[in-house]
Amino acid sequence: MTRALSPVLGTVLLLAITVALAGTVGLVVFEDAAAEPSPRTTFSLSADAAADRIVLTHEGGDTLSTTDLTIRVAVDGDPIHHQPPVPFFAASGFHGGPIGPFNPATDPEWSAGEDAGFELASTNAPLLDPGDAVEVTISSEGSVIARLETTAT
């Protein structure tokens, strides 16, 4: 009788493993299919060393809500000390308020044709010098939408 039990247990165990693997594969496939696609948007970037100003222009594509955005800035590969907490006003490391939808007093929807920018304060580092490579990464809800690079003028 002990022999008859072994093949049955082996079959049940093999069936359980197969069902678990199929469930895992199905979950991964359907989770990826259900994920919302990231916004499709085009931007341009300018950096003015004389004013320590960085301006991003929404050139076209999906409208974005600035409340969902994260902006990260690096100068010559070094992240600036105080990153812009968009939307913001009078944040540490920035001079005054930002322009466009980065300013909480304006519409948080960033549409094609709109500029959004900010000016680095002397309390932030590194500041911009002519010829510096400026890189800005724009993310929405943790997904990178764009990486932009320009040279400060």
Automatic annotation (TrEMBL):
Pfam families: Pilin_N
Domain named Archaeal Type IV pilin N-terminal: residues: 3-76
Superkingdom in the source lineage: Archaea
Name assigned to this protein: Type IV pilin
Native source organism of the sequence: Halapricum salinum
Native organism taxonomy: Archaea, Methanobacteriati, Methanobacteriota, Stenosarchaea group, Halobacteria
